[in-house]
Specification:
3 domains, Formate dehydrogenase/DMSO reductase fold, about 525 residues, mainly alpha, Cytochrome Bc1 Complex, Chain D, domain 2, two-stranded antiparallel sheet, 24 helices
């Protein structure tokens, strides 16, 4: 039930990372509406007064109640849920964020208090306050919400692009990091999109057809222009990312690559529906507003998954790995950096470990404990990113797993932290993982049995660390080799690079793979 270096941590069977994703993305989808929606309300109120449109104003008042219930009540509760979840799942990372930005958080909480107060006064002031005072409170709410995002954005972007903070450790070097401004522009633009998206939900439900057409058209006018600015801010944001980070979303790593494709499709659906609302407001049904709402949510979901997954293997890029191990030693690392844990061992370094050494009597239990300490921040055994199915499908035995543990930071194109600990601990973890598949086949089926091509052998045996691209070392270093030489090299991989496991396929597999590689380098 334990995971982490200095803390006893919540053990979530279906995946702690997935839990954080669900809680945080739902909150973000509401909190962005809290910003754009605040501006939408006060601008809409002014428009209603200018046009002397009482039906329009009555709808804005009703929409305000929907807005406050969603953002102030649900938004606040889900915000607390984020703190609760990340504190249990990533206590070391959360501690670093608090210690590094304690005054930033304090300022944000003041803005949040002002935001809640202004929202409630604005809601109950529709019937009790004069127009000027009511509008003034609306503006106070919007600026409090916007400034809250200004602060939080600096801390969120710091986690992916810490900039000069890695050297100086100072507040402003981390806060005003390379992606701060493009991220702020991107998030504010999306908050304006959401203002219109949420407005469509209530606007398209109005019974008066003329009023509904006016409201739908007005809501769509917030979505379409803001949507047009999103690619500009997105390209600016991408330009500030390290090359290795963005390449993860361009085929280097499966998760961000998949979501990078999805975000295009989901945003296209949302934009197409919004254009329909803008051009044909009288024919726009409530069901279409639900489709736009769902597409917008999945667009936000995809963006947040991309942002989180390209940061792998770090929770704070270049500083702390996702399993709370520090990437580099320093005077205040508490012995929890990669180099120091390798010297001392992970079991003896972790304060809450049930075992301090690996012995013959506790080999499996110690291996399970090492799994909790090093792997469980991203993996489960049977559910989200489950390892049992992977080990079974790849037919990995204990020696194969042991070799692969030595090159974790090269597998999945660098998306995992390196194994830290002693050689005995590595063997204990390999034994535990191999035990997840007790019926492991000791003989790899032949090529005829599996009907595999060279490409499929590559996928099964090589793709954990290598990509099918000309610049990958597997291909670039074999350009001048013939098929026989490649066949020979495949048979002694670990003598070429000790980090590579020996090839465990049949001679026929090896021959087909050599022919396929030779064909690729000759293209």
């Amino acid at each position: 039930m334990l995971r982490g270096m200095n803390y006893p941590v919540w053990d979530v069977a279906f995946g702690s990372g997935l839990l954080i994703a669900v809680v945080s993305i739902v909150h973000v989808f509401v909190s962005h509406f809290a910003i754009g929606g605040g501006l939408f309300l006060v601008v809409s109120e002014k428009r209603g007064y200018r046009l002397n449109d009482q039906g329009f104003l009555d709808w804005v008042a009703r929409h305000t109640r929907f807005f406050v219930l969603l953002t102030v009540v649900f938004g606040a509760v889900s915000g607390v849920g984020i703190w609760f979840t990340i504190s249990l799942v990533h206590p070391s990372g959360t501690s670093t964020l608090i210690r590094s930005y304690v005054w930033g958080w304090a300022i944000e909480w003041l803005f949040f208090f002002l935001e809640i107060t202004a929202a409630l006064l604005y809601l109950y002031g529709w019937k009790t306050l004069d127009r000027k005072t009511h509008l003034w409170i609306g503006w106070v709410y919007f600026w409090a919400a916007f400034l809250s995002m200004v602060v939080i954005n600096g801390i969120i972007t710091f986690m992916l692009t810490p900039g000069g903070w890695l050297q100086s450790g100072t507040f402003w070097d981390g806060f005003l990091n390379p992606t701060y401004l493009p991220s702020l522009g991107l998030r504010f633009a999306f908050s304006l999109v959401l203002a219109g998206v949420y407005a469509l939900l209530t606007a398209s439900r109005q019974k008066d057809r003329e009023l509904r057409a006016r409201l739908v058209g007005w809501s769509a006018r917030w979505i379409v222009p803001a949507f047009a600015t999103l690619p500009v801010f997105a390209l600016w944001y991408i330009s500030k990312l390290p090359d290795t980070v963005w390449s993860s979303a361009q085929g280097r790593t499966p998760t961000p690559t998949r979501y990078a494709t999805w975000i295009v499709w989901f945003s296209a659906v949302a934009l197409a529906g919004s254009l329909w609302a803008l051009l044909k407001p009288r024919r726009f049904p409530f069901a279409a507003s639900l489709v736009i709402f769902g597409a917008a949510f999945l667009t936000m979901w995809s963006f947040e998954f991309i942002r989180e997954s390209v940061r792998k293997p770090y929770v704070i890029y270049g500083y702390m790995y996702s399993n709370s191990v520090l990437a580099h030693s320093n005077l205040r690392d508490g012995g929890l950096s990669v180099d120091r844990i390798r010297e001392k061992g992970i079991l003896s370094s972790a304060r809450w470990s049930r075992f301090k050494t690996t012995e013959a009597a506790n080999q499996v239990e110690a291996g399970h404990e090492i799994f909790r300490l090093q792997c469980q921040s991203c993996h489960t055994i049977d559910h989200y990113r489950g390892l049992r199915g992977l080990i079974r499908d790849r037919n990995w035995d204990e020696p194969t797993i042991y070799f692969r543990l030595g090159s974790l930071d090269k597998m999945v194109n660098g998306a995992m932290p390196p194994f830290v600990g002693t050689d005995q601990e590595k063997r204990a973890l390999a034994g535990f993982l191999a035990g997840l598949n007790p019926d492991i086949r000791r003989r790899t089926p032949s090529l005829e049995e599996r009907q595999l091509t060279g490409g499929k052998v590559f996928e099964e045996k090589c793709s954990d660390c290598h990509m099918e691209t000309p610049d990958d070392p597997l291909f670039s270093r074999l350009e001048r080799r013939n098929e026989a030489e490649i066949f020979d090299l495949i048979g002694r991989l670990n003598s070429i690079n000790p980090a590579m496991p020996p090839f465990d396929g049949s001679d026929r597999d090896r021959k087909v793979l050599a022919a396929w590689i030779h064909e690729k380098v000759e293209e």
